[in-house]
Amino acid sequence: MMQESGTETKSNGSAIQNGSSSGNHLLECGGLREGRSNGETPAVDVGAADLAHVQQQQQALQVARQLLLQQQQQQQVSGLKSPKRNDKQPALQVPVSVAMMTPQVITPQQMQQILQQQVLSPQQLQVLLQQQQALMLQQQQLQEFYKKQQEQLQLQLLQQQHAGKQPKEQQQVATQQLAFQQQLLQMQQLQQQHLLSLQRQGLLTIQPGQPALPLQPLTQGMIPAELQQLWKEVTSAHTPEEATGNNHSSLDLTTTCVSSSAPSKTSLIMNPHASTNGQLSVHTPKRESLPHEEHPHSHPLYGHGVCKWPGCEAVCEDFQSFLKHLNSEHALDDRSTAQCRVQMQVVQQLELQLAKDKERLQAMMTHLHVKSTEPKTAPQPLNLVSSVTLSKSASEASPQSLPHTPTTPTAPITPVTQGPSVITTTSMHTVGPIRRRYSDKYNVPISSDIAQNQEFYKNAEVRPPFTYASLIRQAILESPEKQLTLNEIYNWFTRMFAYFRRNAATWKNAVRHNLSLHKCFVRVENVKGAVWTVDEVEFQKRRPQKISGNPSLIKNMQSSHAYCTPLNAALQASMAENSIPLYTTASMGNPSLGTLASAMREELNGAMEHTNSNESDSSPGRSPLQAAHPVHVKEEPLDPEEAEGPLSLVTTANHSPDFDQDRDYEDEPVNEDME
DNA sequence: CTCCCCCTAAACAGAC
DNA sequence: AGTCTGTTTAGGGGGA
């Protein structure tokens, strides 16, 4: 059964993924179609555009080209500049023409913002950067294409001038240019949308004081003529410092440099940093450490000798051939544009999904936080288990007061097991593949741990991170007379740990086994039968075995046990359940959440070992993570009792009012099951 | 790789 | 006869 459930979950997960991917496919198709039709749309009404206008445009384009070259040179140089200076000089002037053809990738400034705010996890950043790289590639191609067009145009113009022909052909060429510009604008538009979506999803935060992102509709619907007009306006707004100090000073008016002090309108259009020819790595130090920046032969679209252009997968022997392939097969055309568009949509989808998951995670964490702390503050937090002292008398009384009713049948112990909560019964005890217990090791007194996490252990089906021997000893030592009958030991287990309210046959057998096996447990004949006592000397003898673990771990345990252990367990459970290792490191958009997450992750690294180990320990052969892991399939034979028994039969047993009764519980069902 | 610890499963026997 | 208790063996996972 467990097996079934496990695979079910898995298949579900994959199903979801498949679904989404197929969705993407659909999306892709649609996008393609759409892209194509759009690619053709930029039909410019040439007739309406007078020749002067066209020439003006050409002029601007020419200037833009020059600027482009300069920009590229500048980039090379700026690589040597201190990033600080670059950052402090957002006034880097950007010719509109260049900005226009510069895809609105995330500017260095924004990038830095992101990095500083740490709103993104490294993984997210990586993804973003890769996206940016892809965009930059597109942009480069655009520029190349643009250059070619320019040259062609020049040539034709020359020929026409010499031949004295009337520029009908010229008009055609100009039309092409305009169409091309339209395409560029479209690209830009798309990228802006991309940015916008990022912003919407909180991936990008824009601070009020910062230069506005190029998100305004200004450029979106703008036609080249308007841009031209704008350039002129901007040009007139030139500031002295720009004229003197910048790299474009050699250019004529049409270069229309835009400074940071330029009218808001223009600054909106081009973020100064957008002028970097899309090469993100130039300004931000962190960017320079990008893999493909350092290694010229690594390319986001190239890997393992295969072109990674969506839907391509052409084999390229080496990087050079890849570049050739890229330029030939994926040059700027309708198809590439559409594919780029599609890719953007895919990215958007993913981002959307990420946002949703983040939201979910936040809810989960919030929920867990509340839950895990509640027991501490309130003795009877969830009305599940009355706070029971460890004394025997209490044990007698408490069981009755154990209201299992509030809980769901399937998850008797876990306070909240339904709905969005991730800590389902299954997840809870399926947590943690690691078989490690810090019990006696690490010198952490078991009593303190149990005392601290009493409520948690009682409520959550989390395996206590102690060996049976340790638990038995604890049970015995807690008793007034330091001696317990087997049945009383059983009772202690079930009373103190929700985990032991299931699979009774298993753990009881283990308890008996331990009692018999370890010399430290001494059986004493008593009036009312036999009782078990602890030979401390013997017990201590067997303790020093392996005090492994790093010191920090111990420290962790001491300090954060009360709160973190359960929390970690829960968190891990959720992770395991969702089997989303991908997201484990993915931080949340919310900084505080991210911090919390990282803290928790740390805890997981340390304290979790305990928790997990617990889980894996007694859980008959199955540990949570393992459950989530394919590898664990091996242990599935055990599952039947594990999952099936506990979930269905045992659960009901748990609800039995006679909680205090010893034999109580699931024993019977499970036993029957097993036998 | 080996040793050791721990857990789980199971067979078995004796007592009630 | 069935259940509980106690013992013992076997096998596997995991850490050192």
UniProtKB/TrEMBL annotation:
<keyword id="KW-0539">Nucleus</keyword>
<protein>
    <submittedName>
        <fullName>Forkhead box protein P1 isoform X5</fullName>
    </submittedName>
</protein>
<dbReference type="InterPro" id="IPR050998">
    <property type="entry name" value="FOXP"/>
</dbReference>
<dbReference type="InterPro" id="IPR047412">
    <property type="entry name" value="FH_FOXP1_P2"/>
</dbReference>
<feature type="compositionally biased region" description="Polar residues">
    <location>
        <begin position="610"/>
        <end position="621"/>
    </location>
</feature>
<feature type="compositionally biased region" description="Polar residues">
    <location>
        <begin position="269"/>
        <end position="282"/>
    </location>
</feature>
<dbReference type="GO" id="GO:0048513">
    <property type="term" value="P:animal organ development"/>
</dbReference>
<keyword id="KW-0238">DNA-binding</keyword>
<dbReference type="GO" id="GO:0000978">
    <property type="term" value="F:RNA polymerase II cis-regulatory region sequence-specific DNA binding"/>
</dbReference>
<dbReference type="InterPro" id="IPR001766">
    <property type="entry name" value="Fork_head_dom"/>
</dbReference>
<feature type="region of interest" description="Disordered">
    <location>
        <begin position="389"/>
        <end position="421"/>
    </location>
</feature>
<feature type="compositionally biased region" description="Polar residues">
    <location>
        <begin position="1"/>
        <end position="24"/>
    </location>
</feature>
<keyword id="KW-0805">Transcription regulation</keyword>
<dbReference type="Pfam" id="PF16159">
    <property type="entry name" value="FOXP-CC"/>
</dbReference>
<keyword id="KW-0862">Zinc</keyword>
<dbReference type="InterPro" id="IPR032354">
    <property type="entry name" value="FOXP-CC"/>
</dbReference>
<feature type="region of interest" description="Disordered">
    <location>
        <begin position="269"/>
        <end position="297"/>
    </location>
</feature>
<dbReference type="InterPro" id="IPR030456">
    <property type="entry name" value="TF_fork_head_CS_2"/>
</dbReference>
<keyword id="KW-0804">Transcription</keyword>
<feature type="compositionally biased region" description="Basic and acidic residues">
    <location>
        <begin position="285"/>
        <end position="297"/>
    </location>
</feature>
<dbReference type="GO" id="GO:0008270">
    <property type="term" value="F:zinc ion binding"/>
</dbReference>
<feature type="compositionally biased region" description="Polar residues">
    <location>
        <begin position="389"/>
        <end position="402"/>
    </location>
</feature>
<keyword id="KW-0863">Zinc-finger</keyword>
<feature type="compositionally biased region" description="Low complexity">
    <location>
        <begin position="403"/>
        <end position="417"/>
    </location>
</feature>
<feature type="DNA-binding region" description="Fork-head">
    <location>
        <begin position="463"/>
        <end position="536"/>
    </location>
</feature>
<keyword id="KW-0678">Repressor</keyword>
<dbReference type="InterPro" id="IPR036390">
    <property type="entry name" value="WH_DNA-bd_sf"/>
</dbReference>
<feature type="region of interest" description="Disordered">
    <location>
        <begin position="1"/>
        <end position="43"/>
    </location>
</feature>
<dbReference type="GO" id="GO:0005634">
    <property type="term" value="C:nucleus"/>
</dbReference>
<keyword id="KW-0479">Metal-binding</keyword>
<dbReference type="GO" id="GO:0001227">
    <property type="term" value="F:DNA-binding transcription repressor activity, RNA polymerase II-specific"/>
</dbReference>
<feature type="region of interest" description="Disordered">
    <location>
        <begin position="609"/>
        <end position="675"/>
    </location>
</feature>
<feature type="compositionally biased region" description="Acidic residues">
    <location>
        <begin position="663"/>
        <end position="675"/>
    </location>
</feature>
<dbReference type="InterPro" id="IPR036388">
    <property type="entry name" value="WH-like_DNA-bd_sf"/>
</dbReference>
<feature type="domain" description="Fork-head">
    <location>
        <begin position="463"/>
        <end position="536"/>
    </location>
</feature>
<dbReference type="Pfam" id="PF00250">
    <property type="entry name" value="Forkhead"/>
</dbReference>
